[in-house]
């Protein structure tokens, strides 16, 4: 078999709708019906809810204001520079414009770069991000009156910037000045809805992140693909994974593709409410899960580690949680088993996707309570996959190689960057840059091709060792990298954030620190083959840097890798 695909047929995906039309008005066959008393969004701290009617009103009014004040049309770009917040996301974006969400932790130069690449005409900024946004707008060279501040207790009038609340009032008070996007059949496939940023897939160094052009059709298709995968429109399916009235967490950053498409658009389509959490604070997060009786958790592995290991989790009952999906970074099998004890009533597994595939490629099977250990889930309907081996031939079931996929949700390419597009987008197929094995339509991600270590000719995936390290009580977080070694080529070195108890031992002096290091190294050597042992050693650090999706920023440790350690008995032995 040279191609892999789900046997479940994908229903018709409308190619003449914009995303707001699909979310607000679509009569897609089999779509769950949202009861009138089920809100779109719920504000975490206050419990304030926003209904369908309110969200629709705000969307229309803001679109009208943008059209009147800045002449914003379908091909113009509006940038949102904000953490998760009720104000910017209540009006579902992309009603009349292309939308480019920005990471709120960006520096002035990073935001200026995004504005220049996308040629944004308007920037909507959270008060906490206002200083950076103001300087970036100045550096980019658009007028100050193109900067909008989100409503807040902050006195934005001091800065003379319009607020989104006033814009909505203004738009509602005026006659309609714009024409909502109305596509002819097929046009939604080429119309850009989102310019979302990615570091690329091929593993080649990039000077800057790349803007991925995502069409209205791609997002709509992926939502329908996930709904089909989970049999939401199948009346014969006994137990749905999501029902109207369910409550989903909204703690993943909405500017990231996982939060934007899976957490937001798929859940809204399914009739669920989303609890909007601006910032992840673990103690408060635990309270929010209970207070809102959340049923669906979309998380990344570092958050799941806290749920399993943090003392504040002990004794809590999460019987109302019925679905937990981990994505954006690999979750080890051991961690999956641990979290299943914390959430005994939940279906638990992983999903996998990219900004370039907008979004989901595979996900936990609809009939499974617990995902297969090491599996990122089953290919969803509409996705076709190939696995290309190092010699260029196509792998069969169970063989390893680079994952290449196609389907209706693929992005259009990298915005105005034909060179980068040609490296990743190949006649409708997307090179993921991930080494995988597909077995019985399940995708097992070995690791990023650019991150795999070669130890004595054997491939070693950092994610496998990191997942195992996180199970040790001395380890709060971990990153494994390969360092050069004359004998082995590379050997694994672990950077570890010690747990609170381990810190007490480490502060006792060098002997205590060495004791903890030996315990951690033994934890690996007791369970893994010798070429996976931490021959490079264990180094203690204060924090493991991660991007907003939870992926480790490995290059941060490159300066620490300045010497191959001395050979030990293990290093020179045979495996």
UniProtKB/TrEMBL annotation:
Lineage of source species: Eukaryota, Fungi, Dikarya, Basidiomycota, Agaricomycotina
Protein name: AMP-dependent synthetase/ligase domain-containing protein
Domain AMP-dependent synthetase/ligase: 37-415
Matches recorded under InterPro entries: AMP-bd_C, AMP-bd_C_sf, AMP-binding_CS, AMP-dep_synth/lig_dom, ANL_N_sf
Domain AMP-binding enzyme C-terminal: 464-551
One Pfam assignment: AMP-binding_C
GO molecular function, one term: CoA-ligase activity
Organism this protein belongs to: Hebeloma cylindrosporum
